[in-house]
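Troubleshooting log. The previous run stalled partway through. Resubmitting the same two chains, unchanged.
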Amino acid sequence: MTFSRDVPRGKRRILEYAVEALDYLRDLPADWDGDGAEPVTDTACLAAVEFLAAITDIDTVPPQVVPLATGGVQLEWLVAAHDLEIEFGPDGTAHILGSDAEGKITIDSQVNGVIGAANHDEVRDRLRRLALPLTDVG
Amino acid sequence: MSPATSSSSDAVGDDEILLRRLPRARQLNLIVVDRVTGEERLSSSVFKHRPDRDPDGLSVFRQRVLEEQGLPVSAVRNEDSDAVAGFVASVPRRLGLEIVPDPQPDDDSPTPTRGRAHALITGWPDQAASRRVAKQLQGAATLVLVP
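Second attempt completed without errors. Output:
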């Protein structure tokens, strides 16, 4: 998957990084965890990329991309002990979960079907707030 | 000796340390790095239960029983690239889960008796609630062995 030159370089860099990470996970064989894990599905990967493309700004913190034993994938951000994770099931359905530095859950949102614009806005806002400590450091 | 020795079949004490294997932890990003502090912690994915594939529960090892077998924490690993997370048994119990001893027969691996320390975390709620439980287990667990 490639992204147009019209996509700002910072955003393109994050998307290309995510695609590379997802490509690696897609190549994992069945039982990649030695405990019966399912292979990561194309549907989950595509949903994750489409979501990232919708919410990423040039200053978005890159996520870590994690396989799930169900065949899904998870995007995870951890910044100054605040975290946000978005789980994409093998069928592409998504769930958003986040917590603060004390471990208190701050968002727990089940999303059926395609993640809508309202979810995009909420996640984008949370990612901006997550990036603030990095701005302070940098 | 039978795998179901008295110690491996004993009820799990609240203060026992339970160990969970993180397969190929760095390659698979199961160790998440804080972008500000650089601290490492495990991904919540490690504790996500699959009711369809793991109807019996989530697989863990009891450190006390491993030690009785003369085995180190690293015996939980299948490969050197695996990490190991640990947490106290009282944590999943506080979250409404149960811990059931599940000793396995000895095998022909380099650590043939490690299966005696096997246990299962059972009693998982529905999927939505399980995510919160996984998150809380993640918060309580520490990386005790990293590749």
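Takeaways: The two ends of chain B are 32 Å apart (CA to CA). The longest helix of chain B spans residues 127-140.
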